[in-house]
Specification:
single chain; elongated; alpha+beta; 29% helix; 217 residues; 5-stranded mixed beta sheet; two-stranded antiparallel sheet
Length: 217
């Protein structure tokens, strides 16, 4: 009597079961992508900050350059006014009368703003005299840097009905010698000197505008 035992067979291609959840490799790849995105965002923010810093530095340097150019132009305008007003190179024959060709007014002009800027130098310069002088910067080949100025004697206008304009001017006593001659104790009477207010406007590149004032006597 013979018995036969059935041998248990295992399928050769039975699939292996994976544990529940995501595979470790896929999870690691997701973390790497997330970190890379954060790095890209940080680099973008750093690049924007650098561009803004460079832009601000460029503006500061440009403003400093224009300020130096404006100061030089203002100095040239003051020298030109002194040349026209005072001896020995005086080209304004009578300081009691206007001479717009030399940017000169015998009394304060109406329409100045709270900062004391005359109306002729405000806004788009529509009130600036057509025959008044304009100084250009020889170092600016574009010709955009220009200086315009107004000189006003600090007196009230005659239209107010004043008999003597000189009595209503802002004056400064001149230096007088206290010495005398012989028994004469009276010094020499020297007329007072009026103030002259000079306002300079310098227009530069990028619609930049600078104002400065000086008192001449």
């Amino acid at each position: 009597m013979s018995t036969s035992r059935a041998a248990a067979t295992t399928p050769a291609h039975r699939p292996r079961r994976r544990p529940h959840g995501r595979a470790p490799g896929r999870r690691e790849r997701g973390i790497v992508v997330f970190v890379a995105l954060i790095a890209v965002v940080l680099m973008s923010l750093a690049a924007v900050g650098l561009m803004r810093s460079v832009h601000n530095n460029t503006l500061v340097v440009g403003n400093l350059a224009f300020r130096q150019a404006a100061m030089a132009m203002s100095t040239s305008a003051v020298e030109k006014a002194v040349y026209d007003m005072f001896p020995p190179t005086k080209t304004i024959p009578d300081l009691n009368n206007h001479l717009t060709a030399r940017n000169y007014f015998a009394f304060r002009q109406p329409g100045e703003n709270a900062q004391g800027i005359p109306a002729a130098l405000q806004g788009n310069l529509s009130s600036y005299p057509a025959d008044a002088q304009v100084i250009t910067d020889p170092n600016d080949p574009s010709g955009q840097t220009q200086a315009r100025y107004v000189v006003e004697r600090m007196c009230l206008p005659a239209s107010l009905g004043l008999e003597a304009k000189a009595q209503f001017c802002e004056m400064i006593p001149p230096k007088q010698s206290a010495g005398t001659t012989g028994n004469i104790s009276v010094g020499i009477n020297v007329p007072d000197i009026p103030y002259y207010r000079m306002t300079v406007r310098v227009d530069g590149p990028n619609n930049s505008v600078s104002f400065s004032q000086a008192m001449l006597r």
